[in-house]
Design a protein that fits this description.
CATH class: Mainly Alpha
Number of strands: 0
Helix content: 55-70%
Distance between the termini: 7 Å
Largest sheet: none
CATH architecture: Orthogonal Bundle
Oligomer: single chain
Shape: globular
Strand content: under 5%
């Protein structure tokens, strides 16, 4: 079934905040875990806030298989983050969080990202790589909130960024499964892949970029 112009979803103001919040919360979850984040994960506040944002999305997203038990201790969470995303084995981390690791030319990927950020006036903190996933998700959080440019341009930019720079995240969960990740990070990568895929479909429908995106 195709989506016609009359039934194509629009992005209303009430829909931008939940989408922006999900991006922001995922960005925080992929950053190196600090003590305050661990406390929020441990006592359930992180899961509660994320669930609230997900419930407000303008489309359905499966979350029934997700669980957010934090590792037993703060040190355990840091160690698991390092094992999965930073060091891993002799071949490196099972799931590097830099987009350039999944492209043939990381230098070109970095250059394209910097141009994208600069165009919208988004500034990356010094000493942080532009292709780091938390940075990319923070950028999308601001775009989704229409905080960087007019809404129409923002939607086109979101579609381009999701397609060009975030599609690699849809395979994160599959990569992590091979190394028995902690349930917290298994749920995080599963949610990220589904969310990015759903966002691509939603934005394409909203701007009319793909009449079959809702299949």
């Amino acid at each position: 079934m195709t989506t016609t112009a009359d039934t194509r979803p629009s992005i209303e103001a009430s829909e931008t905040l939940p989408r922006s919040n999900v991006y922001a919360q995922l960005s925080a979850a992929y950053s190196f875990p600090g003590a305050s984040f661990y406390a929020r994960a441990k006592d359930g506040r992180m899961a509660k806030q994320l669930s609230a944002a997900l419930a407000g999305l303008p489309y359905r997203l499966r979350v029934s298989d997700l669980g957010w038990p934090a590792p037993d201790t703060y040190d355990d969470m840091q160690s698991e983050y390092i094992r999965l995303f930073q060091v891993g084995g002799r071949r490196g981390p099972p799931c590097a969080l830099h987009a350039g690791h999944y492209t043939r030319d990381r230098s070109r990927t970095l250059q394209n990202l910097i141009r994208f950020y600069n165009y919208f006036g988004f500034r990356v903190v010094e000493c942080v790589m532009p292709d780091h996933l938390p940075v990319q998700l923070e950028f999308m959080s601001e775009l989704a909130a229409d905080g960087l440019v007019d809404p129409a341009s923002s939607r086109r930019a979101q579609a381009d960024f999701l397609r060009i720079h975030l599609a690699w995240t849809e395979g994160l969960a599959g990569r992590l499964t091979k190394v028995s990740p902690h349930p917290f990070y298994r749920s995080l990568t599963s949610l990220t892949g589904r969310f990015v895929a759903a966002e691509r479909r939603f934005i394409l429908q909203a701007i009319g970029g793909d009449q079959n995106a809702g299949r």
